Amino acid sequence: MINIHNLHKSFGDLHVLKGIDYEVREKEIICVIGPSGSGKSTFLRCINLLEEITDGEVVIDGVKVNDPKTDINAIRRNVGMVFQQFNLFPHMRVIDNITLAPIKIKNMKPKDAQKLAHELLEKVGLGDKANAYPEQLSGGQMQRVAIARALAMQPKVMLFDEPTSALDPEMVNEVLDVMKQLALEGMTMVVVTHEMGFAKEMGDRVLFMDQGVLVEDGTPSEVFDYPKHERTKSFLSKVL
Ligand code: ADP
Ligand code: MG
């Protein structure tokens, strides 16, 4: 589903991603862990072209993302993203947050988009919040709306960038539960997370990133119980 080959990303002189090779198969759940500043967000943002790729290539479902001929909107239709800070449109009701992109980018009829939005709100447990504004919701509810909004584009892949890091502890599970449900339904997911429990339980593979390099990759048991690299061991000793 996603093929990443020799991916490099620099911001000016700062070389952030230093040649990443990775492959995500359909329906896989990949959990990305690593210290702050190691390039995890940049890695996700290169996958859906929120950042320009400096060198290398990213291919999603057979389409090269960083090809000038590729329609960026087509990529974004196929790749949903959920951010740490929700990024909902504050002046729009929940329902309009969800229907905006399907109507504008997918040319969906407003009526169909609204029907889909109501279904997705039910799915994330917020069937009664369609007419609320984001500020009337808790963090956990806002993040579930953000997930529903991403799903409204009917993406092939979902990227999550620390989706629970900005939440009060009691709201973490309601978001993780929605993600687990999605995973069980067969969504392909790349999840940057500090929730090691989620990574252990749901991850098909765990990828440890440090200083822009993919240091270690394996099953949760391989990475958590039998880490091979000193850097992985040192990181895990601080977070587990
Ligand atoms: P992580 O998500 O693992 O914490 P990031 O991908 O956010 O790491 O950042 C990796 C490095 O890239 C950091 O040194 C960060 O300061 C830098 N960086 C990220 N985004 C930008 C940007 N838009 N401009 C300049 N530097 C950036
Ligand atoms: Mg980050």
Question: Any overview of this molecule?
Answer:
With 240 residues, the protein is α/β, with parallel strands linked by helices. The protein has two domains: 2-78 and 156-237, P-loop containing nucleotide triphosphate hydrolases (Rossmann fold, 3-Layer(aba) Sandwich), CATH 3.40.50.300; 90-154. The chain contains nine helices and ten strands. Strands 6-7-8-3-9-10 form a six-stranded mixed β-sheet, with helices on both faces. Strands 2-1-4-5 form a four-stranded antiparallel β-sheet, with helices on one face. The protein is globular, with a radius of gyration of 18 Å. Adenosine-5'-diphosphate binds next to strand 2 and helix 1. This is Amino acid ABC transporter ATP-binding protein. Keywords: ATP-binding, Nucleotide-binding, Transport. GO terms for molecular function: ABC-type amino acid transporter activity; ATP binding; ATP hydrolysis activity.
Total discrete domains: 2
Order of helices and strands: EEEHEEHEHHHEHEHEEHH
List the ligand species: adenosine-5'-diphosphate, magnesium ion
Shape: globular
Q: What's the main sheet like? A: 6 strands, mixed
Strand order of the main beta sheet, please?
A: 6-7-8-3-9-10
Helix content: 25-40%
Count of discrete alpha- or pi-helical segments spanning 4 or more residues? 9
Assigned CATH superfamily of the largest domain: P-loop containing nucleotide triphosphate hydrolases
Instruction: List the uncertain runs.
Output: none
By CATH, the topology of the largest domain is Rossmann fold
Range of strand content? 25-35%
